[in-house]
Amino acid sequence: MTDTNPRFKRVLLKLSGEALMGTQSFGIDPSILKRVASEISEISKLGVQLGIVIGGGNIFRGLHSKAFGVGRVAADQMGMLATIINALALGEALNRIDSKARIMTAIDMNKVAEPYIRDRAISHLEKDFIVLFGAGTGNPYFTTDTAAALRAMEINAEVLLKATKVDGVYSTDPESNHSAKPFSKLTCHEVLKRNLKVMDLTAISLAMDHNLPIIVFNLKKKGTLLRVVSGEKIGTIITGE
Questions:
Q1: Which residues of 105-132 are buried (b: 16+ CB within 10 A; e: fewer)?
Q2: Residues 81-96: what's their mean pLDDT?
Q3: CA–CA separation, 223 vs 36, rounded Å?
Q4: pTM for this prediction
Q5: N or C end of the chain: which has fewer CB within 10 A?
Q6: pLDDT, tens digit, 9 for 90 and up, residues 207-227
Q7: Which one is predicted more confidently, 179 or 91?
């Protein structure tokens, strides 16, 4: 049985845009959005202060810029705007179920969301708002993984929770290689040495330099987020050593 006493007081959750897509090939699946919002709301109501960095790959990925005939900088900016669409959708879903959410963006767009200011973000968290960070770092060439590591350190999160569609970190892609070996625990150094595709190298390096632990878990399994926050040993923990 899951212990409902949370292990962590403040966490940063990294969601991919694809997490909201479900089985669709594009966009946001309303049923998935509702379920994810419900699970986030559940842990927030336990007293966990929660920041969220969300990707935009369900709408546009800057790495696909060549296929669209646009330059990398413009493509990354398009990707940043996609993350804001996802943040707005998730924020509205949370507010509809009586969870207080605030959206902050790394790109100034005052009529849409608040500009990201570290002290204000921490103030929102201390008032039990769920804070969604949109637009990544606000700079091209940096992924939302890097934004997640950066925001986690800025808000003094105890842990970075990396939500994925598999049960943790594997030696190779478990969806294409059924003999892939799962890891229960790794260090950031081991992730870099083995070239494991958990998060981008900048994010892992930041976590290692600042001793930020990362827990990689499967968001597709209902209730897993609560189990992780409650301290169950599931998924893969990556220590900042």
A1: bbbeeeeebbebeeeebbebbeeebbbb
A2: 96
A3: 10
A4: 0.93
A5: N
A6: 999 999 999 999 988 999 999
A7: 91
What CA–CA distances, in Å, run from 87 to 6, 37, 69, 73? 25, 11, 27, 21
Cα 6 to Cα 230: distance, rounded to the nearest angstrom: 4
DSSP 18: G
Residue-wise pLDDT for 175-191, tens only, equals 888 888 999 999 999 99
User: Which residues are registered as beta bridge partners of 216?
Assistant: 162, 236
Closest alpha carbon to 25 in 76, 55, 59: 59
CATH numeric code, 10-239 = 3.40.1160.10
Domain edges within the chain:
10-239
Query: What is the gyration radius of the CA atoms in the chain, in angstroms?
Result: 17
